[in-house]
Amino acid sequence: MMKKILFNTALAVAVALMAAGCKAFRTVGSEHTATGNPYEVIVVCAQPQWQSELGDTLQAVLRQPVAELPKFEPMFNVMRILPNNFKSLVERHRNIVSVVVRDDIKEPSISVRYDVTAKPQVFVTIKGPDNRSTADYVARNQDNLLYVLEKAERDRSVAYARRYYSPQLEELIRTTFGVEMYIPDNFKLRTKSDDMIWISQEFPTASQGCFIYKYPYSGPDALKADALVNARNAFAARIPGPVEGSYMVTVDKIADGSGENYVPYVPEYRTMRIGDRPWVEMYGLWDVEHYFMGGPYVSYTTVNKELGEVITVDCYVYSPKVDKRNMLRELQHMIYLIDFPETDTLQNEATERR
User: What is the SS3 assignment for the chain?
Assistant: First the structure.
């Protein structure tokens, strides 16, 4: 069955950048619709800068690997454009990074504007007096630069989902888990029960899906890594594979460098906050028991204190032939589409792994 069903805002950005000594602006929007694909960035940069340490630094920052994926995929697909070619449709791209280096500029800086020539658009300008100091400045502020670009993509995804959501899935999730969650209407319900809902979007050779589940909260130990893996396996076993007796499992060992032996594999684990709510993010690999099939997953877990329940949103991708980054990111953005009851005053009880 699994083969058939192959598996907020400018202010926040400004605060993040100004904390790092950057400047942020919002420009009144254009009437044009932004072009380009998700996680694609146009870098407007002259040849001397592009072939210097500044160009190398920008590429290293923007093209660093996506941590959640087992094989290399860059955070962003980078396309460089010469300044005199930056016109027409190119200037309406969704993500633009413009590089300006002149000796009359006193010190390096980064500024951010939105919807300059199209909507929705983020337009980052990097300025500096020389290549070396500007490259150093970009390296020091790379987390903020990535945050701005990533948040712009996330905001687009969230806005789409809130506009084109499935009322049926929203009602089902609300009645099952006691929370509101907006699921894009291109995702379809696969199975449901009193404590789990499985949805997915299918393609000819790929699938992206998530399963949402809950269980009683037994205390802080329920949020430790081993407890979360055990819970994941219990619910993932309900997702059937393509042959009788096959089902999804969490990978706990992988081949070593020689490919002849297996070594323990532990998912990555971290605590995080979205707004005032603490979550545990865990990512690793899944495969199918009794069948050769698998891919990456990312799960998000929190506690609904009002109901005394742990709730997890578990996102997975199956895509052996097509890059996985955009499909996984779209699923990860769903965590920003959940609204809990206002009376839930959960404090952070997530514990450090081990």
Answer: CCCCCCCCCHHHHHHHHHHCCCEECCCCCCCCECECCCCEEEEECCHHHHCCHHHHHHHHHHCCECCCCCCCCECCEEEEECHHHCCHHHHHECEEEEEEECCCCCCCEEEEEECCCCECCEEEEEEECCHHHHHHHHHHCHHHHHHHHHHHHHHHHHHHHHHCECHHHHHHHHHHHCCEECCECCCEEEEECCCEEEEEEEECCEEEEEEEEEEECCCHHHHCHHHHHHHHHHHHCCCECCCCCCEEEECCEEECCCCCCEEECCCEEEEEEECCEEEEEEEEEEEEECEEEEEEEEEEEEEECCCCEEEEEEEEEECCCCCCHHHHHHHHHHHHHEECCCCCCCCCCCCCCC
Looking at the chain, the domain(s) classified CATH 3.40.1000.10 span 165-339
The pTM score is 0.87
Alpha-carbon distances of 341 from 99, 159, 178, 205, 307, rounded to whole Å: 45, 21, 8, 39, 10
pLDDT tens digits, 125-155: 999 999 999 999 999 999 999 999 999 999 9
As a whole number, mean pLDDT of residues 118-125 equals 97
- Mean pLDDT in residue range 307-323: 96
Average of per-residue pLDDT values in the chain:
89
Domain 165-339 belongs in CATH node 3.40.1000.10: yes
Mean pLDDT value of segment 4-14: 36
Task: State pLDDT tens for residues 225-274.
Answer: 999 999 999 999 999 888 888 899 999 988 887 777 888 999 999 999 99
